[in-house]
Amino acid sequence: MHLRDECGGQLGGLKNEPVSRLPGGAGVREGSALFARIRTRVQEVVRGKDDVVELALVAVVAGGHVLLEDVPGVGKTTLATALSSAFGGSFNRIQFTSDLLPGDITGVTVLDGKGAHFRFRQGPLFANVVLADEINRAMPKTQSALLEAMTERRVTVDGTTHTLPLPFTVIATQNPHDFHGTFALPDSQLDRFLMRLSMGYPDQENERAILRHGGLSRAHVEAVLEPAQVVALCEAVDGVRVHDEVEDYLLTLVRRTRRDGRFLRGVSTRGAEALYRASRALALARGRDFVIPEDLRELAVPVLAHRVVARTEGERFGAGARQAIRAVMDELPAPSA
Known about the structure:
Elements: H1 28-43, H2 50-61, E1 66-69, H3 76-87, E2 91-95, H4 102-106, E3 107-111, E4 118-122, E5 129-133, H5 140-143, H6 145-152, E6 154-157, E7 160-163, E8 169-174, H7 187-190, E9 195-197, H8 204-212, H9 227-236, H10 244-259, E10 263-265, H11 269-285, H12 293-304, E11 309-310, H13 319-331
Parallel strand pairs: 1-8, 1-9, 2-5, 5-8
Antiparallel strand pairs: 3-4, 6-7, 10-11
Helix pairs in contact: 1-2, 2-11, 10-11, 11-12, 12-13
């Protein structure tokens, strides 16, 4: 069985065995029910951010990576840790700092104990879920070590390619770019993230609940899925249909960003593919086997805003790009049901 590239290809380590199915068989109904269980588990520890939790889960189920951007101390790492716990499998956390080197992430080739042979020592990137904490505190050279891994699910060290375990998801957090000691993520790095999300501050009642229940550090939840089932859930997304009219709606949005005066650079084909894939995952999460225009409208900003350059940029968190995407969506007539 061959899975789509978004799922990372065949399941690593089980290439000659059938992929584990979801309970009751891989399908939209079963996938939606399982998605709801994961969402409930994560929301138990990430309070008052139901929309962010759902979108982050959609990104993971779609086989993508997530960038959480906001000021320190609002729960970015809590969400990332809770997601990794709910999906099971192996988990590694990398604390990005200015002195971190590419080999500290991917691994290095070292001499064995007798000094006769070289062997590869895996870095923390070799895990099902990798938390890249404060990713923009590392220099661009170190950040670039993630590019091949996030796109191809593999790393190349000293001319030798090493396959990463599957499923493989990077959940990165970053501080605002104007904070001391940060480096802006290159456009090529941003483009590897399926979604960029912002946590924001909780409301008063949810913040009260956080204080009473041990603060933001209590992020562990019981695993809902095994790694093979995560891949099967990702495969279930392929069963969601996108009708021609909805495809035309998506393509019209993408093409308009390329010629609209509010953008210096519009959405790429990779960005269009990301929105297409994410909309199918969101439909699955909502219990549908088809995408509706509202799915695209809901996902346009988190999927596309970090992939474009707006003419009126400069505000924190890419506010100009988000406003431009919303404006285009508001002007674009949705297809009739």
